[in-house]
């Protein structure tokens, strides 16, 4: 029979010799999430970005400060409102929620095609898969989480792919399709996001660049020599 005193001694010994589990603090998870955020392949939606902004401010500053921006400051007003919605949440809880949100974004990333799989020496473009399927040269939008919205880099990638298809003698048709339940939702709004905070000179330069890309994009279709088939897999 083990006495109470011997039981206490046994417990004391266990506390010294058994390995202790270590758990990362919310501060450590928060700092790691900020580093992990830089590895995201796709820019989050506007609503998610606002949520992340609000949680970051709450985690580092606390409750919302200052006055609400005016009607013409759309970005500032949206950020202020998002921050106001989580007023009262502790910094520790905000850190935990921020880390959890970043981890969920990392888990939703769509695997991209491994480098070197694109035909005709094409450079891989995030959100765009180019491959040869039998006699078909296939261009596929691969951003299902963004409803296959097209970024500026994707426009450039499509131009290059259409030109490469013209030169590829092993295929007889070109196919454009999308991944998931949407064919394409049009322009990615992130194409215009930088314009909100850019100077007049920068906006002018961005507009000129976009116009030139659009001109080349349309011309690439006009100059395309093969039958072009769109496999519409949704809206």
From TrEMBL:
Cellular component annotations (GO), alphabetically ordered: peroxisome
What the entry lists under Pfam families is as follows: ACBP (PF00887), ECH_2 (PF16113)
The EC class name is hydrolase
Recorded E.C. number(s)? 3.1.2.4
Q: What is its main location?
A: other
For this protein, the record's CDD domains field holds:
crotonase-like
SUPFAM superfamilies reported for this sequence = Acyl-CoA binding protein, ClpP/crotonase
Note the superkingdom of the native organism: Eukaryota
**ACB domain spans which residues?**
26-111
Name the InterPro entries on file: Acyl-CoA-binding_protein (IPR000582), Acyl-CoA-binding_sf (IPR035984), ClpP/crotonase-like_dom_sf (IPR029045), ECH/Chromodomain_protein (IPR051053), ECH_dom (IPR045004), FERM/acyl-CoA-bd_prot_sf (IPR014352)
Q: Subcellular location, in the record's words? A: Peroxisome
Keyword list, A-Z = Isomerase, Peroxisome
GO MF terms listed in the record are: 3-hydroxyisobutyryl-CoA hydrolase activity; fatty-acyl-CoA binding; isomerase activity
Q: Which reaction does it catalyse?
A: 3-hydroxy-2-methylpropanoyl-CoA + H2O = 3-hydroxy-2-methylpropanoate + CoA + H(+)
The name on file for this protein is: 3-hydroxyisobutyryl-CoA hydrolase
Q: Tell me which species this is from.
A: Haemonchus contortus
């Amino acid at each position: 029979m083990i006495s109470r005193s011997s039981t206490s001694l046994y417990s004391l010994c266990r506390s010294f010799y058994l390995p202790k589990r270590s758990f990362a603090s919310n501060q450590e998870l928060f700092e790691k999430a900020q580093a992990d955020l830089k590895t995201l392949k796709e820019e989050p939606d506007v609503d998610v970005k606002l949520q992340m902004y609000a949680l970051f401010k709450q985690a580092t500053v606390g409750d919302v400060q200052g006055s609400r921006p005016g009607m013409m400051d759309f970005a500032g007003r949206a950020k202020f409102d998002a921050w106001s919605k989580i007023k009262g949440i502790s910094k520790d809880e905000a850190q935990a929620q921020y880390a959890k949100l970043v981890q969920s974004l990392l888990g939703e990333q769509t695997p991209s095609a491994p480098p070197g799989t694109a035909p005709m020496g094409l450079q891989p473009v995030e959100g765009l898969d180019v491959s040869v399927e039998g006699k078909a040269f296939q261009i596929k939008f691969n951003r299902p989480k963004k409803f296959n919205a097209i970024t500026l880099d994707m426009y450039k990638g499509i131009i290059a792919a259409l030109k490469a298809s013209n030169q590829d003698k092993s295929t007889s048709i070109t196919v454009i399709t999308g991944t998931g339940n949407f064919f394409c939702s049009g322009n990615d709004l992130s194409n215009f996001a930088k314009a909100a905070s850019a100077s007049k000179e920068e906006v002018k330069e961005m507009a000129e660049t976009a116009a030139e890309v659009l001109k080349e994009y349309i011309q690439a279709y006009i100059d395309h020599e093969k039958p072009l088939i769109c496999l519409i897999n949704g809206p």
